[in-house]
Specification:
single chain; mainly alpha; 47 residues
């Protein structure tokens, strides 16, 4: 079960990074996120 949970968390993390990475800098700024914070935001989304 732990392996499945880890895999799902990894998938959610990658999906979040991908979606935020596709956004323009202006769109990220509207959300209050800088490009350098994408990985931190994605990690927080998995928790």
């Amino acid at each position: 079960m732990n392996v499945a949970r880890s895999f799902n968390n990894w998938r959610k993390y990658r999906q979040t990074v991908t979606e935020l990475g596709r956004m323009s800098t202006r769109e990220l700024n509207d959300l209050g996120i800088s490009r350098s914070e994408i990985t931190s935001v994605a990690r927080a989304a998995v928790r």
